[in-house]
Amino acid sequence: xxxxxxxxxxCGANIASxxxxxxVTEAAAKLPHVVYATNYKYMCSDPGQKTILDAAxxxxxxGIVVAACxxxxxxxxxxAVAAEAGINPYRMQMANxxxxxxxxxxxxxxxxxxxxxxxxxxxxRVAQSLALEPIKVPVTKRALxxxxxxxxxxxxxDVADGGVETILVERTPSIGGKMxxxxxxxPTLDCSQCILTPKMVDASRSELIKLYTYCEVEKVxxxxxxxxxxxxKKAKYVNTELCNGCGDCWHKxxxxxxxxxxxxxxxxxxxxxxxxxxxxxxxxxxxxxTCVFFKTGKCRACEKFCLRGAIDFEQEDEFEEVExxxxxxxxxxxxxxxxxxxxxxxxxxxxxITGLQFxxxxxxxxxxxxxILRPSNGEEPKVVVFVHCVGSRDENYKEYCSKICCMYSxxxxxxxxxxxxxAQAYLFYIDVRAGGKGYEEFWKRACxxxxxxxLRGRVSRVYDEGGKVIVEGQDTLSGEQVEVAADLVVLxxxxxxxxxxxxxxxxxxxxxxxxxxxxxxxxxxxxxxxATGGIxxxxxxxxxxxxxxxxxxxxxxxxxxxxxxxxxxxxxEPTVAVVDPLICTGxxxxxxxxxxxxxxxxxxxxxxDGKKVTRAVSNINEAKCEGCGLCVATCPGNCIDQRxxxxxxxxxxxxxxLERVRAAKNSD
Amino acid sequence: xxxxxxxKEPEKAPQWKPNIVGFLCNWCSYxxxxxxxxxxxxxxxxxxIIRVPCSGRVDPLMILRAFREGADGVLxxxxxxxxxxxxxxxxxxxxxFIALKKLLDHVGIDPRRFRVSWVSASEGRKWANVVEAVxxxxxxxxxxxxxxxxxx
Amino acid sequence: MAxxxxxxxxxxxxxxxxxxxxxxxxxxxDYGHTFPAILTKDSDPSRLTxxxxxxxxxxxxxPELRGSRVGLICxxxxxxxxxxxxxxxxxxxxxxxxxxxxxxxMLDPRKLTEGAADLDSLDESYWQEKCRRCLERNTPxxxxxxxxxxxxxxxAEGWPLLEEVEKMSAEERLAWWRRQMSLCIxxxxxxxxxxxxYCHQCFVEDNKPQWIDKSVAPENNLHYHIIRAVHLAxxxxxxxxxxxxxxxxxxxxxxxxxxxxxxxERFGYVSGETAETQPALTRYERDDKEDFIL
Lengths: 668, 152, 294
Prior knowledge:
In chain A, the strands form twelve sheets. Chain A has a five-stranded parallel sheet. By secondary structure, chain A is an alpha/beta fold. In chain A, 52% of the residues are buried. By secondary structure, chain B is α/β, with parallel strands linked by helices. In chain B, 45% of the residues lie in helices and 15% in strands. In chain B, strands 2-1-3-4 form a four-stranded parallel sheet, with helices on both faces. Chain B starts with a helix and ends with a helix. Chain C is an alpha/beta fold. In chain C, strands 1, 2, 3, 4, 5 and 6 form a six-stranded mixed sheet that branches. Chain C folds into two domains: 4-145, no CATH class; 160-282, no CATH class. Chain C starts with a helix and ends in a 27-residue tail after the last helix. Chains in contact: A-B, A-C, B-C. Chains A and B meet through helix 4, helix 5, helix 6, helix 18 and helix 19 of A and helix 2, strand 2, helix 3 and helix 4 of B.
């Protein structure tokens, strides 16, 4: 028999007002295994914890049940108390009699009966709980950052600053991300390039940061502390050792009318190109899809003009496997495709552009050298309509708020006024969300000092007529229908996860929310972790964020990474699956279902009827097991069990409750 | 049970309360049930909750064991499809439950005795509604006894 | 069936003579019965036969012979079984020699009377239910084929016994199954005859914890059969051996058929269709249809 102590918490009046403390204590004391039961006003408080410690000593307890709040609240607290009392923390169980009892049931008798059942179940569970020790795994002291935007760059710089080698993988030819394309930034209007490019250079100069541009993560194996990552190095068709970035090749490339991805189509690029002049590294790549040589077998102009002989049409994609201990995902965002939206004429009107296209136009280093022009005729716009919440806060598209649009639309209105003094900005908005340092002041300034006209309401229709773009909408403050004949319409389209996020989630084994953003481990308390150990999130891949937030999360992810990698070994929850190899038949059901690749095909040699037999059996790699128990429930032969959520424990809980029910039924 | 006994049943009904075992995944439904608590959303008191890491951990053996031990109903609740903390555990669980459900229905066990729900960590209200619905249905179906139900 | 018998014996002798196999799994005749036989090089092949009482699913012996080179007679039933076993890596196809036969449809032993006349001439009313649904009477995948190919009649639709049970009300079904289960003596012949019940230790023997009580009470028996059906979900190839061998005549396979039919309709799933077909419970589709989840 186990020696279990039951400690019942009043939680002030939270539990005690609905659950009869004395009755529960009395019932608990009579249960098998229970040698001591008591109740106290606040079990989590210092005197409460002392009650447990004293009782453990006095009654030689080897198991504890704390009937109190949810284990999601205080399990760590009481596990620590158990450890202090010399009892294995995994032989402490919490009966949830607050969130799932006193707070939802009004009738004292009923709630008390339920609380007694909860205690019965947990006592039965503790009696079946094995002492468990955390699992230790050695750590590879190297980090991987996926995505070279501001969040990824910041994370890489901070990890490297902590003395840890960092691999920064970026799928485009240059690091810098969306921020490299922005003009001035809200609310201070400092130039985006001026604050970003030094960081880009730092990253490329750092001895501890290895840049893998034009590369993608192909495969991830292993688990926290020891990931094996396969990186696809896409063929650049340029020998990066020989190239000095002189630019002769792209100046000579005859194919000049390719819409630039970096400029969102506002400008053009060549087939061999660097995305922007300040690119890091300043090494061009040949885009196989648009290069005329790859299409027709003729041209090779770049090759002819390259004095260093750096062009290499024979290059192929290469794969490199790297080992890292932690991964930071910073894959950023894309904009919702407004050409799918009927209210904006499916992208058919050239003078309807997105916020990011506006940024490229207003950027001094952009294709128009900072001139804001109408795409249709190249003239200066005098009336510009900015539309907030395009596809955001809209149940037809994305329910969520994209968070950055209110501020950047205000910024656009200010920039417009600065560049074209006689221009008028109209902004259609639902609410202005300006929660940030200096943000409220900034949009007020746009409104008051810069004369931007804010119209509260949604845009219902946009169409072109007589060289103008007519924007119809409602001003809900005046209650009137509004119509603006604009020269240019700028859409603050919804921020969506970057293309390919879903595929990456699958490769990494992390989950996404309904909108495709990566899920954090806890929305409040673990906003940087994912549920998969050793994988952290930074920037817009987790949810829409502005630059300071992305930088903050990048640094936070870096500090999480450094914390993890500063240890020689890491400990993991011991609630992993275990195979009994003697009865495993090697049907590989577990291998097939495990989302984490934890069960591995292995062999065992045993003696059957005096003969040595080698059998194929499954073996759980503890470092990979996340403890979901899926394999346990899938194994037809019950060959797998899960520590901490064992069949015995669940069985005991079912029995602990229903024994009482059966007894009641029989006495009927 | 004989016809005469069946007719007697409704008289007992007012005092009778169903005994329901609920298997809740730690990440969504258990947290959703906690949220119902912190939001003080009242619901019937007849479910006893067993916390499991994932709905994928729930073995049909557990469900049948609960019935064997005298449960009148079993409720399994997990994360919504696509939201599983362990990425895909609930998808596999769903197939398993489809199979078990089909078999229980076939052998004549009332479908209302075995229910599955998807309740997320933010759906405290939904958890309360699920318990409400399951309890109400079981009150209609009455106590589960193999011996009498299948008496011949 | 003199010809097929001779051809078979000659083929098996050749396989041994050419050192292609270590064991041959086939049927032998004795005392008027046909039963499974495992031959080695030194065995006498002259008792080997193949007739309409070659009931046993011979794939059942393969997990035991794992690692050896085995030749075996395969009807359509065995072929589907082989595919499931191959998908679960319980057999190595390249170590097997599949001896194909034209299957004349197996007779239902319960319908045969003592001293029945010429077995070859018995019509459909004497067949096993599964044989009416047979998709291909001439073994697909055969490495060696003996006998003359036969034509396959159009497969019959439906599941007669299952449909009969389904006509009853829920209470009647529960009563019916309770009656069936009260007959069960837990001899586990169904499990033994099933070629896909190859676990070293069955869940029902598990006593830590003991999920299913060992005593022979109808509800315990029902639970055993339900869980067995869940474990065979999307794997059972409907050979009906479980029912044939049941000493008390419980149509155990009806439970398996519930899922075979449902999975075919719901997931478009046919077990053992190919050696790559993953068991249905170890895969999923994001939009798997169900109608009971709240």
